[in-house]
Amino acid sequence: MNVLDDKTLDELREIAGRYPEKRSGLLPMLHLAQSVQGKVTPEAIEACADILDISAADVSGVATFYTMYKRHAVGDFHVGVCTNTLCAVMGGDAIFDRLKEHLDVGNDEVAEKRQGDQHSVSLEHVECNAACDYAPVVMVNWEFMDNQTPDSAVQMVEALRTGQEVRSTRGPAICTWREAERVLAGFPDGRVDEGPGAGPASLAGLEIARERGWTAPTAPAPAAVEAAGSKQEAVSEADTSRAESETVEETSATGESAAEKEEAQ
Ligand code: FES
């Protein structure tokens, strides 16, 4: 595990400097720390706290809340099998069980590297990835592998372990965990446009709408929005005038103001 050297500390400060409130940089800073150390270490927590002028407890609270931050090492390729409702019934549970057996690991564990393996693989069950139209979905270092089966998932982890290129079904060739974490920290690797942006299943609704000539309701014109704003102002003004006139009426009816009444009491 690497230490946080001067270059990394400078990059952590650079991230903090990107935001009007520097503590807003905490999430990408933790990703950068993971890209260097493979996990969020006590050293990284102290460094982030120091740079952001917040407590180590604040940083630790964030690092332990979000599941993308790891307090123990994961593999070079972290495989997340979606076992949320739709993926589970479409085969996610079967994929997870098969991978557990094949890799001989439990949830959130790293498989032992075999002789000749180039990379390590870890396995975790994950919640919905908002990719239900491609269920059952598996993620590798946060890249989608759509419409998986137990057999295709086993083939995929074998390819990853033995150093073969694996391409996301909707993204680039899958890079290592640490490389992916650096991208999430806001240091692009120049491959953002590799692979399709959206697949046919996600665009099906749009295609049907085009065929049938459906369109979204038009947004109100700016003039209508302005008119609504003026109407609101007019209502406020009317309320103020009415309140003032009621005060005047009350004063004239009794011959003394509300303040005078209060003083008399
Ligand atoms: S339930 Fe798996 S992506 Fe939504």
Task: Describe the structure in your own words.
- The chain is an alpha+beta fold.
- It folds into 3 domains: 6-65, Arc Repressor Mutant, subunit A (Orthogonal Bundle); 77-176 and 188-208, 3-Layer(aba) Sandwich (Glutaredoxin), CATH 3.40.30; 222-264.
- Helices cover 51% and strands 8% of the residues.
- It is built from 10 helices and 5 strands, in the order ααααβαββββααααα.
- The chain has helices at residues 6-16, 26-37, 42-52, 56-65, 85-103, 150-161, 177-184, 200-212, 222-254, 258-264; strands at residues 77-82, 109-110, 121-126, 138-140, 143-145.
- A 5-stranded mixed β-sheet has the order 2-3-1-4-5.
- The longest helix has 33 residues, at 222-254.
- It is flat, with a radius of gyration of 29 Å.
- The structure holds FE2/S2 (inorganic) cluster.
- The site of FE2/S2 (inorganic) cluster (FES) has 11 residues, from α5.
- Keywords: Iron, Iron-sulfur, Metal-binding, Oxidoreductase.
